[in-house]
Amino acid sequence: MRSLRKDGNQRFFDFAKNLPDRDFWGKKGGFLRGDFEKFLKFLEYIEPFQPRCFLVAEEDNKLVGFVVAVYNPEWVSELSERFGHDVEKRAYILGIAFAQRRNDVLKALTAELTDYFYKNGIQSVEYPTLGNICLTTGTDVLTPENVDALIMFREAGFKISECYYSMKLDLDKYKYNQEHPIKEEAFRLKERSIEIVRENEVLGKITWDPIENEKTSIDIEVKRASRGKGLGTALIERALHLLKTKGIKQVELGVDGNNLAALKLYRKFGFQVCATHFYINAPCRKTARVK
Questions:
Q1: How many other C-beta atoms lie within 10 A of the C-beta of residue 145?
Q2: Closest by alpha carbon to 32, among 49, 48, 55, 9?
Q3: In the 8-state DSSP scheme, what is residue 213?
Q4: CB-side exposure of 181: number of CA atoms within 13 Å?
Q5: 7, 80, 205, 252: which is deepest, by most CB within 10 A?
Q6: Residue 137 is inside which H or E element, if any?
Q7: Whole-model pTM?
């Protein structure tokens, strides 16, 4: 087990490129599935993060696994804002893979990783499994393959900490009904967003992605001090009505599984869960190194 060195970049890239899809997990996997120049851009991307860790596992002079994780205080602050309370300092795994789904390699990588961040004052390491990777399901239940992956990570010291739902709404079935009157002048419409403004302060906004195949995804943000006042409801009502007039057939969004208020709000509008994603977390602690 060692850190990735510059003279090993090409060797690592060749290893990652040839891994089967099912053994290649991570939010930034696209950087390693592209060409070598794209991979070098990934290395530039993680360079500013401190602390950061890029470990490779070797056996008989062959690479058999890797993990890359970083700490970013901005991500922790964003998580605190989303949950409405302070969260512990945590690092994030951007990618992890090991040949032939070997448990021993995963355990060794996890032990070395958590030991490293423990020495740097980080309390835990999170693996936000969003995207087409190990613990993401196509429905709101776990599949047998995902359960197997979950067991592997549990045995390595990870636990499910949170979940995240993908939801969608069929706009053909949605009926516009403005229940919460907000002064018309409070709304500010932009190209792909609607804001609620008071004295030039943005209290909340809803944005949507570029429209493709009559579909789009939305994201809602309301300042903590302005929550519980109907702003989120007003923004969704206004946005769904506008998107429907533009011919949009389906609207998607994502929500933290523990955000009960948001879940109830989206269900009120008719959004249905279409996929479940799990966040898994391992505590950082000094451990005996696994060889």
A1: 12
A2: 9
A3: T
A4: 1
A5: 205
A6: none
A7: 0.70
Amino acid identity at 263: L
Q: Are 214 and 208 in contact (CB under 8 A)?
A: no
User: Do 204 and 231 touch, CB atoms closer than 8 A?
Assistant: yes
Q: What is the pLDDT of residue 139?
A: 56
Identify the CA nearest to 106 among candidates 151, 52, 71, 143.
151
Helix (H, G, I), strand (E, B), or coil: what is residue 274? Answer: strand
Would the CATH topology of 2-161+278-283 be identical to that of 175-269?
yes
Q: Which CATH class is domain 175-269?
A: alpha beta
- Cα(206)–Cα(153) distance, rounded to whole angstroms? 36
Q: How far apart are CA 220 and CA 233, in angstroms?
A: 10
Distance, CA of 104 to chain centre: 26
- Give me the residue label for tokens 């070797």: 58
Q: State residue 255 phi and psi, 5-degree precision.
A: -150, 140
2-161+278-283: CATH topology is Aminopeptidase (3.40.630)
Question: Domains of the chain: which residue ranges?
Answer: 2-161+278-283, 175-269
What CA–CA distances, in Å, run from 187 to 204, 228, 234? 10, 18, 10
User: What's at 254, amino acid-wise?
Assistant: G
Query: How high is the mean pLDDT in each 10-residue block of the chain (291 residues)?
Result: 90 83 60 80 92 94 92 85 78 85 90 95 82 48 69 87 87 74 80 92 94 93 88 92 92 88 91 84 74 47
